[in-house]
Amino acid sequence: MPAKLAEIVDEFASAPRELVLEMLLEFSDTVPALPAEMAGHQGMEQVPECQTAFFLKTRVLPDRTVQTWFDCPPEAPTTRAFAGILAEGLAGATAEEVLAVPDDLYARMGLAQAISPLRIRGGSAILTRLKRQVREQTE
What is the span of the domain harbouring residue 116? Predict the structure, then answer.
């Protein structure tokens, strides 16, 4: 797992339960804006498991670093927070590091006590699709 993502996971896992939701929501403001060429979700994949409209795209560069883009409306702060965590935690990561992210990432963060199982399922689907896109580009 990339060091920055591991640091975020550890912060959540060690935080008092009453602070976890507040910490999560802080990440909803960290999602970078989409570049103009992705307006209207051009070239992005929708994640239908999310309760709200959520789109993502990855690109594996020749040096094997992974770029990620996410789009989710501000009215869905929990789902948007998942995108913020992944955007920050995977920034500069290699394809191998991204593929090594554990599938139970959100459980390791202790989020099951703070948010609904449906939201956890959506976050897990985001990670699954992200890893699938990386895998498809590296095979």
Answer: 3-33+42-138
